[in-house]
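Running this now, will post back.
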Amino acid sequence: MHHWCKLRFDLLPSIPHSKTRPPYRTMTSTIAPTTAQAESSIPEGFEPIDRGSAFLALLGPVYMKQASPDRTVIGVRIDGRHTNVKGIAHGGMLTTLADSALGIAIAIANNEKPMVTVNLSTDFVAAAHPGDWVEAHVDIQRIGARLAFANCYLHVGEKRIMRASGVFASV
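Update: finished.
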């Protein structure tokens, strides 16, 4: 081992273990709703999604509706499983929803040709809270022989909460 990369733990100040972690709170009041509760609050036209990965199923239940022949909308009801320590929807969860919605919409528009995400850029504009119905609306810019380009906008009602821009490649 080179001398310049040797760690000297003996030089670090001694910190009591309890002060090394921030205090975490448990969210016992934000448990996921039952399936019956979740299904009773789903907007009209949305059906449980029958596609996507096992990873997407972890967000679930996830719903989809065909708003028009070329427009697919993905939706999910935010519950306690989706929140961060501040009690709002976790950015990683929202990013997963946007990435999945982009991939599903591109697959539908591209005759189910398999594609993978090669770049995803996100901008968070506002928060989603437990109980909110979040919809992912996809705007496909271009599908070529090897690459596809699209934007996804997450909304709670009329309020835009996130924008994602993705590039997908054929596999």
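The two ends are 41 Å apart (CA to CA). More later if anyone needs it.
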